[in-house]
Specification:
single chain; mainly alpha; 67% helix; YjiS-like domain-containing protein; YjiS-like
């Protein structure tokens, strides 16, 4: 039964996309990739900024959130691309 279904699909009559359609699809993919790269850059920038700010947190605030200086140092030393 499954073989009969596959045989009914005629791929020779499917219209091929025009060059204009190929270009539009390519531009769309590149635009999506660029937006994704911008978003990754924004995330990395925020992550680096927050890690630099960790040094300014007071000891009292650290106690409130249950962290110590060693944990803060460990987080601050991570590269910006590591979560």
């Amino acid at each position: 039964m499954r073989q009969n279904c596959i045989d009914t699909i005629d791929t020779t009559t499917a219209p091929l996309p025009s060059w204009g359609q190929w270009v539009k699809a390519g531009v769309k993919m590149v635009r999506a990739d660029m937006l994704q790269l911008v978003e990754i850059g924004r995330i990395w920038s925020m992550r680096a900024h927050h890690r630099r700010q960790l040094h300014d947190i007071s000891d009292e605030t650290l106690r409130d959130v249950g962290l110590n200086r060693a944990q803060i140092r460990e987080q601050a030393q991570k590269p910006f691309w590591m979560a």
